Amino acid sequence: MIDNGLPEGWELVVGLEVHVELATKTKLFSGSPNRFGDEPNTNIDPVTLGLPGALPVLNQHAVELAMRIGLALNCTVKPSTFHRKNYFYPDLSKAYQITQYDEPLNVDGFLMLPGGVRIGVERAHMEEDTGKSTHFGGAGGRIHGSDYSLIDFNRAGVPLVEIVSHPDVRTAEQARQYVNELRAILVAVGASDAKMEEGSMRCDANVSVRKYGAELGTRCEIKNVNSVRSLGKAIEYEARRQIDVLETGGTIRQETRHWDETDGRTHTLRAKVDANDYRYFLEPDLVMLAPDAEWVERVRAALPVLPAARRTNLAVLTGAEEDSEAIAVVVERGQDTYIEEVKNAGGDAGRALVWVQQSFAEEGNAPRLPAKDLAALTVLERDGKLTATQAKTVLGDMLEAGGGDPAAIAASKGFEALDTSVIEGFVDEGIAAQPDAWAKYCAGEEKAMGALVGTIMKLSKGKADGKVVTAILQQRRNG
Amino acid sequence: MSNFSTATSIAHNVASGAQSAASVVEEHLQRIGQREEEVHAFNLVTSAEARERAADIDARIARGENIGPLAGVPIALKDNMCTRGVPTTCSSKILEGWKPPYNATVVDKLFAAGAVFVGKTNLDEFAMGSSTENSAFGPTRNPLDTSRVPGGSSGGSAAAVAAGFAAVSLGSDTGGSIRQPAALCGVVGVKPTYGLVSRYGLVAFASSLDQIGPFSHSVADAALLTEVIAGHDPMDSTSIPKPAPSLVSVLGRGVEGMRIGRVADLPEGADADVLARLDAAFVALEKAGATIVDVKLPSLSYALTAYYLIAPAEASSNLARYDGVRYGNRVAANDMNNMYADTRAAGFGDEVKRRIMLGTYALSAGYYDAYYGKALKVRRLISNDFAAAYANADVILTPTSPTVAFPFGAKTDDPLTMYLCDIFTIPTNLAGHPAMSVPFGTGQANMPVGVQILAPTLGEEAMFKVAAVLESAA
């Protein structure tokens, strides 16, 4: 049984609905720019404002990006239709949202979590975003009770894809992994910048609990989760809330709940009985969207290598563990091809992975430092010409200058590699200075080695290679 | 045919310099000045713009420029087509004073063809009605007998042509709103194939049924105007991706060998005078060399019911945007829901409210399958019936309207009797086919009778050939 952090016998069941804004130049149904952060109500036109007589025309690039998402999530691309979802709200300019309903573009896919868990993807469908309301005065940011409200229609009509998972997620950690992995895929295929903090990726969680082997419990939909971290916290809170209700003889009411970051709780937003009747019907202003097989195959063939495969490749290349932090971080930054270049330039891929993870956070997917320079640095390190500490200093200079010969920089700093015989001398001194630690280490207490190495490094003024010191200590003990 | 000049002759005269665009416009503005108060065809007469435009055309002709196929032709637009900077009201208080920031595609096309806009014409509010009595700005009167209605919903556009206020006009037809007023006012009215004319900038009533089309004195004018406004528009996703058809050139070809369908199971309800003219039309076509064949359209009797679910359902969604938030009239209230309710209660007339409620109900959870869903099935049956009929016939002839123009108030007490006005026109819209009404003599009270020619999708050529023969036999 998986550790879900819940009281014994309870199973967590979560399905995730992720909305992602597509990285198109223009909106889903009009030519206005799709751009975040512009002056309010500047990216608008008759279609966006829902002016009388305006008609939607489907953005073909948005379709292509939506297909990329579907294909990257192992979905089948199918002939699809658009519906109108009717409801009144001031930032919904036509009083209906155009969305895919019973015939979505992408169906029946899955996403593999890094740990090997398979999360089914029910569908990934296209729809348009609404405008953004801001409410002033009165009631703490809600429209009811506010003094007045302002609407920005820049976001109205921005293309979205909603990715709906099956309720296959069993722990809060899996939910986090799912969203992280999905995000990595979306960025990799160029479909979206998928920034939760800017709202270009939004996540709702359908949470329920049940006793193992029981029927699915009643679910609550959790909204307003604005980070991956909050997602985990919200799911954990909600699961415990539901268990508390059930264990005290209560029942769960199907409802939409609002995650409040400040008090760390979920609160009722609206019950299902109060839900809108959206009166869905086929959008008569659009025709069927049925990408032909040739188009689908062209999109499929053009898909880049996806993050999971890139992590495997990088692990093989560097010898690191596939699920290690370094592999995840470097692939997410898109710096795995750079490490490949370092390797091809004769460098040590394993050391390159360490340096790139530690020092390339600001570099993006095309670091300025020439791969051959980092390769040269890792060679000096591997050959024992530089200690890790020295290498780090040299790398700092190289990054600042945007390149350079590491051997020359090391020489200018007076970094010279110490002979093993010199290091042996420092080891003797170190053991003499720390007799207790040496005794403990010899008795098999591995932790004691730290104090010994520390002392020896200090004696050498950091010039000894820590790896060499460790090797000598081991040799002496075993010898 | 009336004594007014046709668009074809005006365009010819203006282009050749025989007549100035300015004098043509003055002639029409003069007639407007004489009778508009009585007829009320317009919500807005754009005299100044029309004179300016005519002067510009004359100047360009003087410079030897080619103006286009509608050079100097005065045209009226139904007031549900967007005109940049010019109020577009749909004869509704909710849009009173709203000025669109853009032109409908048809407006741009007409302008490019050299037409001169003289005004925006009255209609039943949001094109919902068959008499133009549902206008928030008062009814339009039939120029042939001002105690009678002009039909609707494009009553203003039909009356404007019949009264000689404009040489031609545009209307929109969702269930007969061009053909029925054309019949009642004694002019030609065409509903083209769905998708032949762009709907961009036409304020939507029922999007899957709406289609823009011309009113004119002659079949040739209707063909000319259809050619000008037809053709693919990338701004309308339902626009047919084909070039505009060539129609004027087929007009003289006759009907020799054509098969004209007579509906054996035509729904009852047409008056005897109307049916007599229909019979006369069959005789005329037979005389001209066509063969009359019987066809059956058994699902036709369900068309009206299906239409009054589908059209209101779409309308309930299309008209939801009139909420007072972004444009049009707003009634202030203490909260959002009351603002919506009060704005819409004050802004919409009874018939519009009736249809919004009907459509909302038909789409609601628990009722969708029984109403809207079933109506869609009927729509498919009607298309199937037409397909079978057109296997044996090139076109089908029916009455356009069951009656001649009726007096004001005759059908306003019971919406259902008003709905029956469109019993012969509605099936065409459900099928997406073209159809047109051609004046063919008179009936009761010497009022005109229209004969309706129906054709399959993109069957405009056959339809116009038949229309030309009927016109010359009338």
Structure description:
The complex is a heterodimer of chains A (479) and B (474). In chain A, 43% of the residues are buried. Chain A is an alpha+beta fold. Chain A starts with 9 loop residues before the first strand and ends with a helix. Chain A has three domains: 10-300, no CATH class; 307-412, no CATH class; 420-478, Arc Repressor Mutant, subunit A (Orthogonal Bundle). Chain A is elongated. Chain A has helices spanning 60-72, 172-188, 228-247, 293-301, 307-318, 325-332, 336-344, 349-359, 371-382, 388-401, 406-412, 420-433, 435-442, 448-459, 466-478, and strands at 10-21, 76-77, 83-86, 96-99, 106-112, 118-128, 132-136, 148-152, 159-165, 201-211, 220-225, 255-260, 265-271, 281-282. Chain A has 15 helices and 14 strands. The model of chain A has no long low-confidence stretch (mean pLDDT 92). An eleven-stranded mixed β-sheet of chain B has the order 1-3-2-4-6-5-10-11-9-7-8, sandwiched between helices. In chain B, strand 7, helix 8 (272-287) and strand 8 form a beta-alpha-beta unit. By secondary structure, chain B is an alpha/beta fold. Chain B has helices at residues 7-16, 21-39, 47-62, 105-112, 155-162, 179-185, 219-229, 272-287, 303-318, 336-347, 350-363, 369-389, 415-419, 426-431, 460-473; strands at residues 42-45, 74-78, 116-121, 168-172, 188-191, 212-216, 259-263, 291-295, 395-399, 435-442, 448-454. Chain B contains 15 helices and eleven strands. Chain B has a domain at 7-251: Amidase signature (AS) domain (Amidase signature (AS) enzymes, Alpha-Beta Complex). The longest helix of chain B has 21 residues, at 369-389. The radius of gyration of chain B is 21 Å and the shape is globular. Chain A binds chain B through residues 46, 49-58, 84, 86, 88, 90, 93-96, 143-144, 151, 277, 279-281, 284-287, and chain B through 81-82, 88, 90, 95, 98, 100-102, 104, 199-204, 206-208, 234-238, 313-314, 316-317, 320-321, 323, 325-327, 335-336, 340, 360, 363-365, 368, 372.
